[in-house]
Amino acid sequence: MADIREVKHLPAKYYKDILSTVAKERKPSPIRSFLPLEKTPGVISLLFGKPNASTFPFTSLSFSARSPADPTHESTLTIDGAELEAGLQYGDTAGFKPLLDWIFGLQEAFHGRRRGEGWRISMGSGSQDLIYKAVNAMVNPGDSVLIESPVYAGVIPMFHALHCNQIGIFPTIFLPPCFLNLLSTLFLLNRGGNGCARHSLLLFALHPRTVAYGQAETKSSVHRSLWDFIILEDDPYFYLYYGKEPRYPSYFTLELEEPEVGRVLRFDSLSKILSAGIRIGFASGPEALLNAIDQHTATSNLQTSSLTQAIAYKLLDSWGYEGFKTHTERVSEFYRQKRDVFENAMKKHLTGLAEWSSPEAGMFFWLKLLLSDNQGEGEGDSEIAIKTKAFEKGVLALPGTHFLPNGRATPYVRASFSTTGEEDVDRAVRRLREAILEARAEGAILEH
Ligand SMILES: Cc1ncc(COP(=O)(O)O)c(C=O)c1O
Questions:
Q1: Which pTM was predicted?
Q2: CATH topology (fold) of 332-447
Q3: Which residues have C-beta atoms less than 6 Å from ligand 1?
């Protein structure tokens, strides 16, 4: 027997104060808002400036793909007929229906969220597109936002452009409940002090485990105060998890433990598991927020490419959820091996010159450079050692300052182990060693 559960969700009026002024003032696109009516049976549509597909030169599209179960085996998939026509034509703003349906099933399988329980999905041209539109839909100039740090550097310019008060914090799962409580109270007081009715307390969250935060213990549930916030959960590395323990549940899953859902807007991406160039990401969350995102899409790029969505769907549908799981497990294992190669090179060349913890997901190491023997907690700046010295020696990495909301000095550096071959890893880490040694020597001279 199917298990029966009742999931309550926040009412539409809850989001009235959460939407930004821009989102509230954006009028629906006159043409796009009529588009769903075309599907009414028996209706003849004279509505849309759709080009006549019979004039398009494409007659079929075939591609070959590796089998998830046996990557040495390839099969060819063909998109033609009505499928091709849909892929070549304008489509719904929220996304290509067959792909949306498939993703609903995926979110149920991996996050326990069922269709019809107060949430939906919109597709975007990568998750970046959706994150940008979500920030635009919820943040007014000057608003305060909590940001789990280090954060994805690609979002900081969005908050900067809106002159936000960006408050960098440790991921909430590592924070003591009293700290979260205090933050939430401060936010609420600040709001009251401004005489401002909006209560969009935004928390921009990165999935834990992509950054290894030392030996901190993760908790299996989160503190009540977290749900004072609307959580933007940016999680493109969810399927690149290779830790030994079961994966930590997403905020999207955790909110099911609350009396009502509707505070999490989750961003997933196909970039790291199928192709980054295919430009497909998806947002899952409350209808009111996705409506605002869709209205932005309807007035900016109209929709995500129908063709790449049709290609992604053809592939995913041929795999099924089991095939998808097999594929992503293989991809994760690939990155785990890459991590180990990189870590071995660091143990060989950087012991005593840098500290790190092993990530359990994703493709990055976060190294803390030991730029001086007397370096205290939080001291030092990797910017010159990395941007200038390391580059001169022939290696590129990103100084940690670019991942901090306030851009302060930090001894951390982000190094990607995704694409570099074993020999180049060794060479790169040796060059990092030389750069750190040079920075330490110069620091020592200055100290005297
Ligand atoms: C943490 C994070 N979020 C979002 C993105 C954007 O990815 P995409 O737009 O390709 O889905 C990236 C890309 O590297 C990322 O690292």
A1: 0.92
A2: Aspartate Aminotransferase, domain 1 (3.90.1150)
A3: 126-128, 152, 154, 234, 236, 269, 271, 276, 281
